[in-house]
Amino acid sequence: MDMTPVYTPRSESEAAVIASMMQAYGIDFVMQGGAFSTMYPGPVSTSLNAQVLLVRMDQADMARELLAGFMEKSEQAASKAGPEGAPGIA
């Protein structure tokens, strides 16, 4: 079964909501790094606690549609960030 990366959750709680959504819609998925991320919990994402949502290639479009709201918020947060991902100053 070929899996493709679709989204990187920003926090453990966001990952839990996304996993529940994938289960509810019957999308086969793996949250890569999900178990390891519990060793370093918290909102700060580093290479040690980063998670990546992988879904079956034939279900990727459906997963992206379901995640559209999360993706928009992620893009907005990235555009407001300062240098090297630091929070922007308004």
Descriptive notes:
The protein is of the alpha+beta class. The chain has a single domain (3-69), classed as Alpha-Beta Plaits. 37% of the residues lie in helices and 16% in strands. It contains 3 helices and 3 strands, in the order E-H-E-E-H-H. A 3-stranded antiparallel β-sheet has the order 1-3-2, with helices on one face. The longest helix has 13 residues, at 12-24. It is globular and about 35 Å long. The chain starts with a strand and ends in a 10-residue tail after the last helix. The relative contact order is 0.22.
Number of helices, where a helix is a run of at least 4 consecutive DSSP H or I residues = 3
Helix fraction bin: 25-40%
Total E-strand runs: 3
Measure the end-to-end span: 46 Å
Largest sheet entry: 3 strands, antiparallel
- Provide the residue-averaged pLDDT: 78
Q: What name is given to the CATH topology?
A: Alpha-Beta Plaits
Query: What's the SSE pattern?
Result: EHEEHH
Globally, the shape reads globular
Describe the secondary-structure layout.
Blueprint: E1 3-7, H1 12-24, E2 29-32, E3 52-56, H2 60-66, H3 68-80
Describe what is shown at a glance.
This protein has 90 residues and is α+β, with helices and mostly antiparallel strands. The protein has 3 helices and 3 strands.
List keywords for this structure.
about 90 residues, alpha+beta, Alpha-Beta Plaits, globular
